[in-house]
Amino acid sequence: MEPNRPARICQVYGKFARFATLYDRENRIPVYSAFIFTPGPLPCLFSRREEWFIEPQLTYSNRPPEMMLMEHLYNSEHKPRPKSDFCQLITDSQATDCDYAASGFDKGHLNLNCFQFAEGRDATFTLTNAVPMYENFNRVVWSKAHENVMMSGLLTACPPPFVAYVVTGAVPSNRFALGRVNVPDWIWSAICCSGNGYNIAFIGQNDPNGFAKVVPVTELERQLKLLYNHFVTIFPSGCY
């Protein structure tokens, strides 16, 4: 599961840490995002936006760890370089809006915006939290699986003061959008309720005719062992 060129990102927005991501610079997609389930009022209307944030620290090690719009990052340079050179620097290590614009793929959240609230929701719109997903899989199959099963059942099974921890990941393939951004074959998600042991997991095939199914965390780990070709433990405590 560890990529060749990993980046461990603390996703910061509005000067607050929002969630964590293990990022694959080579495939230009996240391996997984880990976060706490903190939804706002239901029902949640899944929102979309054209311009997403990028992660400056993947290119500039001296930058504060806060996501920015690409145009804002360029304008903040003290000695602006030609924009073509700037864009090349950024695209060497991460995806940009341009990678998705002509690809035919959705920017598919790992940390879904409906799993967060207020500014936490805005923070999910960073390209280091997105993978290319087929439209029907993203907007119907994957989102409905979470909306119908998790958004309702999880709130009942893991009420306050318990805390629901979520890890959502992507299994890379040999396919690339526009030759640059890996199009994962599988998307998976695991949830652990700290305090009462409740757990639930999902795995879905990222395909125009893909599917998603609910499985126990132990079954998800078994399937991920086959897909990644090594043992996978999602929650150190087990949560089962």
TrEMBL record:
<dbReference type="InterPro" id="IPR001604">
    <property type="entry name" value="Endo_G_ENPP1-like_dom"/>
</dbReference>
<feature type="domain" description="DNA/RNA non-specific endonuclease/pyrophosphatase/phosphodiesterase">
    <location>
        <begin position="15"/>
        <end position="231"/>
    </location>
</feature>
<dbReference type="InterPro" id="IPR044925">
    <property type="entry name" value="His-Me_finger_sf"/>
</dbReference>
<dbReference type="GO" id="GO:0003676">
    <property type="term" value="F:nucleic acid binding"/>
</dbReference>
<dbReference type="Pfam" id="PF01223">
    <property type="entry name" value="Endonuclease_NS"/>
</dbReference>
<dbReference type="InterPro" id="IPR039015">
    <property type="entry name" value="ENDOD1"/>
</dbReference>
<feature type="domain" description="ENPP1-3/EXOG-like endonuclease/phosphodiesterase">
    <location>
        <begin position="16"/>
        <end position="237"/>
    </location>
</feature>
<dbReference type="GO" id="GO:0046872">
    <property type="term" value="F:metal ion binding"/>
</dbReference>
<dbReference type="GO" id="GO:0016787">
    <property type="term" value="F:hydrolase activity"/>
</dbReference>
<protein>
    <submittedName>
        <fullName>ENDD1 protein</fullName>
    </submittedName>
</protein>
<dbReference type="InterPro" id="IPR020821">
    <property type="entry name" value="ENPP1-3/EXOG-like_nuc-like"/>
</dbReference>
<dbReference type="InterPro" id="IPR044929">
    <property type="entry name" value="DNA/RNA_non-sp_Endonuclease_sf"/>
</dbReference>
